[in-house]
Amino acid sequence: MSQSSRTVTVLARLACLAGVFAALPASGAAAAVTVPSGFSVSTFAGPPTGRIQPDDITWFGGHVYVAFQNGVGPDGAPSSTGSTQSTLVEYDSAGHPINSWDLTGKADGMAGDPAHDRVIVTANEDQHSRLYTVDPDAAPGSQVTAYTYSPDPGASGTGGVHTGG
Description:
alpha+beta
């Protein structure tokens, strides 16, 4: 298989995976997914126990990363169950969870940073914005670095981190 064929296959799988995760209700029960002709959908991986609201997804370093918002509010306010943390889960290409990190706030933006071998996650799009870098290969305890903004973009009344639009 050529490199371009592998890339298209990976992108098609990610698009289907994003649709499957987005179609999952908070309970994790199966839901109907509409699939274009010529494609099929199968379960890649389910959410870890107690994790809900998968939102962001990225492919980085041969692994799939999914951020679960867990009901946290857009300004970092606790969920109805009191949770104040989103969960970033790293899956291998077969859909097995490899690692996970709890990040304070509502994860709502993510990308791989190949130049620095890390994943970047933004949180709390409305107020109290944060940015995290996650280095999966670093020693435990030093994999996550949290950043805040000074001044907080929310202090101006315009909200948190906005990437356009």
